Amino acid sequence: MGQMLERASELVAQAQRIVVLTGAGYSRPSGIPDFRSDDGVWASYDPVEVASLRAFRRNPNHFYAWLEGLLELMLTAQPNPAHLALAELERAGKIHAVITQNIDGLHQAGGSRKVYELHGHLRQATCQGCDRQVPMTSLLGDVRRGTAPRCGCGGAFKPDVVLFDEPLPQGIFWLAQKALEECDLVLVAGTSLEVAPACDLPFIALRRKARLVIVNLEATYLDDMADAVLRGDVATIMPILAKQVSRVIGG
C-alpha cells in the first residue's frame, strides 16, 4: 500500500476543494452495523417490510420494535479515528464538504462542519399528523416500552430519516451536487457505491476532470477510474492519510 498511499497523499495535498462521499463502512468502526453486507442489517430483515414509509404508516409499533436496538447504538456511538481524520483535513483547508449516506451524525460529532446528510438523520422526529418536530432523544422512553411515540394530535412521530419509498431531501441533494460541481477531488470512503442515487454522484465531479481517491474495504465499480485506491478499514487508513497529507503540506 506504500506507493498508493503516497500517491493518494500527494493528490489530497495538491487539491484545493475536496468533497468526501461516505457510507456505512465509515461508521462500522464505531460499532454501527452496515446494512448490505452478509452479516448486515438486511441479512435478517426485509427492508421493505420494516423500513419503508408504507410499512411505517401501516404499523408504527412494528417499525419502532425493529429500530430500537439500532437507534440505541446510533445515539450512543462515538466518532472513530476516521471521523476525526476528516475533521483534521477540513481544519487544514482541504475538505470543502462531506456528503454522507449515514444517519448517525458522527461526522458532525467528530468535528466536520459542512455535512450533507442524503438519507436524513436521527437528531429529531416529525409528527406525521401536524408536522411538529421534537428531539429524537425525547421519544426514547416510548420506544423502549415498545410503543410508537405519538404527538398530542395523535399522529405518530417518524425519525427524520429517509425510508424506502421516500425521496431524498431535494435541498440537501442539490447542495451535494453543487459541491461536486465545484470540487477538484472526490474522496470516496467507506462505501461500496451500491446505493442509488448516491453511487452516481462522483460522476458529477469526474465529468469535470476532478481526481478520484477511494478508501474502502471492498472493491467498487469506480476502482478502475480512480487515481488511487486504498483497500482497508477507514479507521486505520484515514488517520494515516491525514498525517501523510500534513507532512506533504508542511514540506
UniProtKB/TrEMBL annotation:
InterPro entries given in the database record: DHS-like_NAD/FAD-binding_dom, NAD-dep_sirtuin_deacylases, Sirtuin, Sirtuin_cat_small_dom_sf, Ssirtuin_cat_dom
Record has Metal-binding as a keyword: yes
Name of the featured protein: protein acetyllysine N-acetyltransferase
Catalytic class of the enzyme: transferase
Deacetylase sirtuin-type domain mapped to chain residues: 1-251
Key words, A-Z: Metal-binding, NAD, Transferase, Zinc
Active site positions, chain numbering: H119 (proton acceptor)
Recorded superkingdom: Bacteria
Presence of the UniProt keyword NAD in the record: yes
EC number(s) reported in the record: 2.3.1.286
